[in-house]
Amino acid sequence: MALEQFNLEGQVAIVTGAGKGVGQGIARVLAEAGATVVGTARTESDIVATISGIEAAGGKGLALVADAMSRPDGERVVSTAIERFGRIDILINNVGGAKYARFLDITDEDFKLAFDWCVSSTFIMSQLVAPHMIEAGRGNIVNISSGAGRFGIRALAAYCTAKGALEALTRAMAQELAPKIRVNAIALGSFATDGLQSSLDLMPGSLEKMQEATPLHRLGNVEDLGRLCVYLSTADCYATNAIFHVDGGIDSNNSPLPIPDY
């Protein structure tokens, strides 16, 4: 009986940035739970691979090339989902990022990019999806944030600022869109993705340092985030306006990057 409540059969989920990493892991688990996944990414080969994998495993999905920071792209994604499937029940705002740069080296363009990437993308996609959810009388939005939003990380000031703003947007949306739409965020720690591994490979011993600085002494698994998204998408979920910390217990920066003092 309990597990039946986690069946998302018949629901339609849009997952942005689903071509790799965290977004890909979430998309896979939502599909395993029965949802039809509309996955988006800017790189066609990445999103096609994600959706092909979902379909090969018996799930349902649709791959769309789109930039979540573009309102015209977002309009196309939402209209396509409605035309093909008639509904949108879940939105996972996963895209985000920033360039590594020390504070005094951040350009105005870099700072704006971080904000657009992490915050404007969420605002655009949520504003486009919300009317359909309100009309249907239900919906669930999950924004993927970071521990960087609550404590600083050297060489990532723009990213830290943007993720903090994303969590503020989450709380504002949750208040205004309740009771029909639930809005929550998941603040991530260090997860085992190809992107993180590429960075760690450049610094021998950095993985061990990162794990040692994490109370659970390991990296996270992206499928774990998908399972939380499934819970947040269940009909009886009582959570909204919440920031879930899924980070192995860190309460400060665990980055092994050797950024010197000024």
Automatic annotation (TrEMBL):
GO terms for biological process: monocarboxylic acid metabolic process. InterPro entries: NAD(P)-bd_dom_sf, Sc_DH/Rdtase_CS, SDR, SDR_fam. The keyword Cell wall biogenesis/degradation does not apply. Keywords: Cell wall, Oxidoreductase, Secreted. One of its GO terms (molecular function) is 3-oxoacyl-[acyl-carrier-protein] reductase (NADPH) activity. SUPFAM superfamilies: NAD(P)-binding Rossmann-fold domains. It is found in: Secreted, Cell wall. It comes from the Bacteria. The keyword Transferase does not apply. It catalyses: a (3R)-hydroxyacyl-[ACP] + NADP(+) = a 3-oxoacyl-[ACP] + NADPH + H(+). Belongs to the short-chain dehydrogenases/reductases (SDR) family. This is 3-oxoacyl-[acyl-carrier-protein] reductase MabA. It comes from Mycobacterium intermedium.
